[in-house]
Amino acid sequence: MTRFLLPLGVFLALAIALAAGMGRDPRALPSPLLGQPAPAFELPLLEGDGRSIRASDMRGKVWLLNVWASWCTPCQVEHPVLVDFAARSRIPVLGLNYKDRPDAARQWLERLGNPYLATLVDADGRTGIDFGVYGVPETFVIDRAGVIRLRHAGPMTPEFLERALVPLLRDLERESEKAPHA
User: Fold this and answer.
1) Using CA atoms, how far apart are residues 117 and 134, in angstroms rounded to an integer?
2) Beta bridge pairs of residue 67
3) If you placed Cys at 70, which of 7, 56, 103, 108 could pair as Cys (CB 3.0 to 4.6 Å)?
4) Where are the domains of the chain?
5) Which among 119, 108, 44 is positioned nearest to 79, based on CA atoms?
6) What is the residue-level pLDDT of the chain in tens, covering all 182 positions?
7) What CATH homologous superfamily does 29-178 map to?
8) Is 48:64 a contact under the CB 8 Å cutoff?
9) Is the CA virtual torsion 38, 62, 139, 30 positive or negative?
């Protein structure tokens, strides 16, 4: 009888651990980069005109980095929300086009609208990896000191904007106004 108790105990422990894991939101994966400086990058613009943008170019601004791809179905769900946000907000939104074909990305933006101040090409995904991207879409809020203040995995929704993003951006803008400018 006791020889069956050990396997039964192990099975029950695994079942409990699995059940606990199934109840978690997979988009709520913590980012080790929160509160850390955003990774340095220099990436070409989607326009393909030879220009590029570095992370340091955004220093002194509160900004969003939205990681997306034309092949990403959840990105299509998120896109109207992002277009509306960009039209209503003073916060610059940069797009990080992740492991995509530039021609497909350009067509996608022409068809659905372009919410981005600039779209950066991350053809090999290295910058996405530096940011700890698990999948697209993901959005990061970076403060004026270049520190990552928020990571949101999955499509942004109007509820997320109103509940989390807009209040954070409002606080960061207030901090920017109070801080001495260089």
Assistant:
1) 24
2) 96, 138
3) 108
4) 29-178
5) 108
6) 667 666 666 565 565 655 555 554 444 556 778 999 999 999 999 998 899 999 999 999 999 999 999 999 999 999 999 999 999 999 999 999 999 999 999 999 999 999 999 999 999 999 999 999 999 999 999 999 999 999 999 999 999 999 999 999 999 988 877 766 55
7) Glutaredoxin (3.40.30.10)
8) no
9) positive
